[in-house]
Amino acid sequence: MINMPEIKLGVVGVSRDCFPIALTRARLASLMAEVKKAKLKNVVDCPVIIENETDALKALAWTRENGVNAVCMFLGNFGPEGPTTLFVEKSGLPAMVLAAKEENRKGLASDRGDALCGVLNFSYNVGLRRLKVYIPEFPNVSPKEAVKELARFTKIARVVDGLRNLKVFGFGPRPEDFFACNAPIQPLFDLGVNVQENSELDLRVQFEKVASRKSEIDAIAADMKKELGKRNTYPEVIPQLAQFELALVDWYENRRGAAKYAVFADKCWPAFQPVFKFEPCYVNSRLAGRGIPVACEVDLYGAVSEYMLQCATGMPATLLDINNSVPDDVLPKGAKLFGAAKRDLFMGFHCGNTCGACMKSCAIKYQLIQARLMGKDITKGTLEGQIKPGETTMFRLQSNSDAKLVSYLAEGRFLDVDPCSFGSIGIVAIPEFARFYRHVLVQKRFPHHGAFGFANCGAVLFEALKLLGVADVNTPKPAGCLYPSENPFAV
Question: Which stretches in the chain have pLDDT values below 70?
Answer without folding.
Answer: 109
